[in-house]
Amino acid sequence: MVVRYLGALYEQDYQAAHDLLSAESRRRHTLEEFAREARSAQVLYDLAGARAERIGEKTAEVVVPLQREEEPGAKAFAVINEGGQWRIVYYTGKPFFPYGE
């Protein structure tokens, strides 16, 4: 799901990416604001390296490595299970680098 979210952002399909946010995240960020913020800053991730960690019944983290070889790193995306579907938690930050507070 995080890979689909990032793929939608890379393709500038902001509606599809926004639809993958948690209900609270969608409430906090309108589609228009989300699209504007996504256009303002892009991060390149190694989508093939994405892996789920700290998986619970309702929450998990998905770690996605950055593509920078000279300065390796990764971003942990917080996800939540809402009605049987995993959703991105985005309260602060930017669409390509969201934080769940």
Taking Cα atoms only, what radius of gyration do you get, to the nearest Å? 13 Å
Q: How would you describe the shape?
A: globular
The CATH superfamily name is NTF2-like, domain 1
Helix fraction, binned, reads 25-40%
How many domain units?
A: 1
Biggest sheet, spatial arrangement of strands: 1-2-3-4
Given helix and strand content, the structural type is alpha+beta
End-to-end Cα distance, whole Å, is 20 Å
Unreliable segments (pLDDT under 50, ≥5 consecutive)? none
| Residues in β-strands, percent | 25-35%
* Tally of contiguous helical segments: 4
CATH topology: Nuclear Transport Factor 2, Chain: A
Described by strand count, sense and barrel closure, the largest sheet is: 4 strands, antiparallel
Q: Give the strand tally.
A: 6
Rounded mean pLDDT score = 92
Give me the CATH architecture, please: Roll
CATH class: Alpha Beta
Order of helices and strands: HHHHEEEEEE
Index terms:
101 residues; alpha+beta; Nuclear Transport Factor 2, Chain: A; 4-stranded antiparallel β-sheet; two-stranded antiparallel ribbon; 6 strands
Describe the structure.
With 101 residues, the protein is an alpha+beta fold. It has one domain: Nuclear Transport Factor 2, Chain: A, CATH 3.10.450.100. The chain has 4 helices and 6 strands. It has helices at 2-10, 14-19, 23-28, 31-40, and strands at 51-53, 59-65, 74-82, 85-88, 92-94, 97-99. The strands form 2 sheets. The chain has a 4-stranded antiparallel β-sheet, with no helix packed on it. Strands 5-6 form a two-stranded antiparallel ribbon. Strand 3 and strand 4 (85-88) form a beta hairpin. The model has no long low-confidence stretch (mean pLDDT 92).
